Amino acid sequence: MKIPQLAKKPEKKSCHNTIWEDDYSWIHQKNILEVLKDGTKLIPEVRKYLEEENAYTEFHLKDTKEHQKKLFDEIKGRIKLDDESLPFKDKKFIYWTKTTKKGNYSIKLRKKIGTEIEEEIWNGDQEKKKLETEYFGVGDLEVSWDDELLGYSLDLKGSEYYSIFIRNIKTGKLITEEIKDTSGSILFSLDDKYIFYSKLDDNHRPRKIFRHKLGTPIQEDILIFEEKTEAFTVSIGLSSDEKYYFIVSSDHNTSEQYYFSVNEQSPKPKLIQKREKGIIYSVNSWDGSFYMHTNKNAEDFKIDKTSDINFKNWESYVPAKDETLIGGLTFLNNWIIRSEVTNALGKIFVKNLENNIEEELIFSDEEVYDGGISLIQKDKNTDLIHISYSTPKTQSRVYKYNLKTKEKKLVKEQIIPSGHNSQDYIVERLECVSHDGRKVPLTITRHKKTKINGNANLLLYGYGSYGNSMSPSFSSTRLSLINRDIIWVTAHIRGGLERGMKWWKEGKLLNKKNTFKDYLAVARFLIEKKYTSKGKIIGMGGSAGGLLMGAVVNESPELFCGMVMAVPFVDSLTTNLDHSLPLTIGEFDEFGNAKDNKDHFDYIYSYAPYNNIKKMDYPNILITTSLSDNRVLFDEPAKFTAKLRDYKTDNNLLLLKTEMNAGHGGKSGRDGAIEEIAFDYGFILKVSKKI
Q1: Distance (Å, rounded) from C-alpha 261 to C-alpha 268?
Q2: At residue 422, what are phi and psi to the nearest 5 degrees?
Q3: Which fold has domain 427-687?
Q4: Is the pLDDT assigned to residue 366 strictly greater than 90?
Q5: String of b and e for 511-545 (b: at least 16 CB within 10 Å)?
Q6: Which of 360-364, 521-525, 641-645 has the lowest mean pLDDT?
Q7: Which of 247, 269, 307, 653 could disulfide-link 620, Cβ–Cβ 3.0 to 4.6 Å?
Q8: The domain 92-226: what is its CATH number?
Q9: How many Å apart are CA 144 and CA 122, to the nearest integer?
Q10: Which residues contact 543 (CB under 8 A, 6 or more apart)?
Q11: Which residues are catalytic?
């Protein structure tokens, strides 16, 4: 089949006395945000190219179609399709959600406490059918405090422009007009007369908080807070004791918080502490005291406490620990629960407020696991909570746990209908020394029959940005590869928070290359230890993880037989130079500001995947993107693919697949998500010669 060609229209670019040529910059339309909302505004020539790439991809993966179907059935066969969540006891009702065998979206139900009559208040599949839309993304689903109203927000393109709707649960009628172009979050006031929401600006940034009086025209909505700094975005929430509304304004590196009483008729948010660059803080209120979670004078955070309404006289409550990330607090009348993360493993601690004794809550006797807690009911006068855990080989289990007696009872276990024996798998936590001596944790999951002799293919997953940590949790989908003799390894590289804030700082800005070097060090370590061999690794990462894939494949393509790059941030220099794009300004503290800082420009230019494509052999590569993605615009992977075709000197596969009706998260619905995984896995099995 003829290889798709994107027309070259060379454009000279310059910045900080550096001049370079971009053959494909023309596909980035000036009205790009309008294109994300309405795909019909896409340049016809670009649409034709994307469709040709889709046809080319389909042609070269047609021999995987049968295997994709088998993978789809396998993955779906491990999901209990007709499942229910554990119930949550509110004041008047018990709420829970369920899924069905035929449905793709969840159903929300409730029953009045003391009765057994179930009431369905939301059915995602029925809502989608009514709207006759291909993409159906639910942002928020909130019930009013009096249990009479349902608030929900919908994104029907994948562009993350959410419309908010409020309807009467009994009558099903909308009680207020559609509120368009919001971030999607909904907060009912305690008297249920109002909702609070954040509006997106022209650059898709939520920088305004509005209060809407239910039943009135949206033109009368009151602006209660506006953030003037473009890099900052805002959100609003309720304190744990339901006495205050808190507005948080932040970028990735700095935060500032405001508050006002729930009883204020004309809200006038008051500042808690003025922002300081690099300081992140969050204040909560409980039982007459305020608790501040902050990294001021505590790189990996600490928690301070005060009873002063003027937010002075803070005293230490949970002190800082080096390279141990201190998490936030969950409050009950007699208990305070908190979390820590050390060396990519989480811990939970429980403090008894009657005797002030704090103890660690032990989840599992396995070395590597992911655990958490959740509340059972609205009423905080209880000793009962849910604790959950999973491991890379053991499916999720939830226990009802009595904090006082320490008794636990299994109340829900993830069912794998097609069967699963955790004893068939081996999980290891190893450390590998990176280029500068830092030890990188890695989590390895393999079938017990897979031999460690260098012959196995290995999927190496990485992300390493924004302080996002990769948790060692269970994934039933990965078993389709692991059962086929492919070892799955997650590299906990710098840029995440697995080893505290220092781990993040050492993987961003002018340290960003540590992320890439860590990943390559892990790859070579795994080859050295005979988990795999050179040319048998499949790299995998999405979004900022796609940036990682692009950087490492330009650096060391010989290590890989294949690579899956999902919605990859590969034209990172161009995006960083364009301050009108939704995320750019807010990410200056993550990647730098190339336009205004020569050091940042030179550094980003030196690793940006699109700018560093070379004349050499590349492995097989599958690139996926979505037309309505406003986080990583579709033109980045499209340009990367077109340029890579010009430069690569091999005959390996280079495939670009664009979802024409989806966003950053891919297709909507359960089946859509499984189809995408089966598609990626079909490519992986093909390039690793498993089919």
Answers
A1: 9
A2: -65, -20
A3: Rossmann fold (3.40.50)
A4: no
A5: ebbbbbbbbbbbbebbbeeebbbeebbbbbbbbbb
A6: 360-364
A7: 653
A8: 2.130.10.120
A9: 14
A10: 463, 566, 567, 568, 569, 631, 632, 664
A11: 543, 629, 664
